[in-house]
Amino acid sequence: MSDQTVKPSRHHLWRITLRTLGKSWDDSIFAESAQAGFWSALSTPPLLLGMLGSLAYVAPLFGPDALHSIEKSAISAAHSLFSSSVVNEIIEPTVRDITAHARGEVVSLGFLLSLWAGSSAISAFVDSVVEAHDQTPLRHPVRQRLFALFLYVVGLVCAVVAAPVLVVGPRTVSEHIPYALANVLRYGYYPALVLGLMTGVVILYRVSLPEPLPTHRLVLGAILATAVFVIATLGLRVYLRWITSTGYTYGALSTPIAFLLFAFFGGFAIMLGAELNAAIQEEFPAPRTHAHRLRKWLISRSPTLKRTAEALSNPVTTNPATRERDVEPAGPPT
């Protein structure tokens, strides 16, 4: 009976909640969120330059007005997340200026520098997720920075490929379906946006960790992160609208401060979700992923691979937070 799965109870839920809050405080969640928010704000122009600059070459393949449609969709999505002042004074002018000079910037040295600068936000998020799971010693800081750059480039390529399809596709489909179904496409925009955010957070949690958890064990943290971010942004928009109506503003600094607050809540939500996943892992340790089991099985079958792994000092055996998952004998992956 000892191998039966322990079912969660109110006692476990209370312990997980306390552990999540305790780990968040111990890991300086406010300082990490502020750092992630700062780098997110600082990386916004390079991020837009990388995406829109590349789209200037890809979008015309989908029609002469595809780039303009993508620009409008990006600004519309920004209105869904940020306040009007942030969009009108920061995001929209930046998007329009980059779009007007996108082709020339891509072939310049500034574009290569923007790749490094734009990946700073990804690096901050990766650092916070890794720290939440106590896996910081498992990856060298330089290697982790280059890994964040790799994630940024991969995400940039995916965005460049997917953006024209996501913008042109629904418009083309809506022209050939009944009006009632067209309403479904329009009303499904916000649920699809939330689902897309949640999926992106799950992917971030999965690829950030040197010792990743099974994907299904990351969903609860992604749900919490998405919910916290959506609620925080809605509350911040209401607060900014109210403070503006009273006449008490920060003058010319009000818009940058508002943008930094949005970025701060984004970092706060991602780190809080990662802390929840780490607390659940401590309470209910998950088995190793199939990729890790396959790797261990291959090493056990090959003396050469085993010596190589020992020479490289495999960090799996040095992490106390996950060492208990390695007590099982190596066998063929199932």
Automatic annotation (TrEMBL):
It is found in: Cell membrane. Coiled coil: none annotated. It is a multi-pass membrane protein. GO terms for cellular component: plasma membrane. The keyword Disulfide bond does not apply. It comes from the Bacteria. InterPro entries: Virul_fac_BrkB. The chain crosses the membrane at residues 146-168, 189-207, 219-240, 252-274. PANTHER family: INNER MEMBRANE PROTEIN YHJD (PTHR30213), UPF0761 MEMBRANE PROTEIN YIHY (PTHR30213:SF0). This is Putative transmembrane alanine and leucine rich protein. It comes from Mycobacterium triplex. The lineage of its organism: Bacteria, Bacillati, Actinomycetota, Actinomycetes, Mycobacteriales.
